[in-house]
Amino acid sequence: MEKAEIKDRIREAMELRELTQSELSEKAKIDKGQLSSYLSGKYKPRQRNIEALAKTLNVDEAWLMGFDSPMEPQLANENQFNSDDERTLILSYRKLNDKNKKKCYIYTNTLLTNQQMEEELIVNAAHKYTDVDATDEMKQHADDIMNNPSEWK
């Protein structure tokens, strides 16, 4: 099988990640002229620039260099995930373009904030008294009841 050209792989990854030549140059910290010469096929990038391009484009270095290997970077430690769902989420996130990564980040933080507020509401629900101001001692007593599993059987 014939090895793919690095210039074609860079273009393919740029299109997938929805990056312009200028954006890639800036993010990878590679001179625009150098990147242009890589894309035209005039020159091939040195290893440090291959690493920078692969990292910025979130692709495997071997794939970028034209070898028949998976496009997605191989994870150093597959055991770092707690579940298949977590692995799928992380790998899907890595495929998103910057705009959608930002949306994902905002949405995830919103979900987490809502979850934390819901948990806080449940714990503090017993603290609301209508006829007196709850003292710290009264709140602690209510928390003890709420956190005691035997109270909920």
**CATH fold-level assignment of the largest domain:** 434 Repressor (Amino-terminal Domain)
Number of helices: 8
- The helix content is 55-70%
Average pLDDT for all residues: 84
| Number of β-strand runs | 0
Structure description:
With 153 residues, this protein is an all-alpha fold. Helices cover 61% and strands 0% of the residues. It has 2 domains: 6-64, 434 Repressor (Amino-terminal Domain) (Orthogonal Bundle); 96-152, no CATH class. The protein has helices at residues 6-17, 21-28, 32-40, 47-57, 61-64, 84-95, 98-124, 136-146. The protein is elongated. The termini are far apart. The model has no long low-confidence stretch (mean pLDDT 84).
Keywords:
single chain; 153 residues; mainly alpha; 434 Repressor (Amino-terminal Domain); 2 domains; 8 helices; elongated; Cro/C1-type_HTH; Lambda_DNA-bd_dom_sf; DNA-binding
Strand and helix layout:
Elements: H1 6-17, H2 21-28, H3 32-40, H4 47-57, H5 61-64, H6 84-95, H7 98-124, H8 136-146
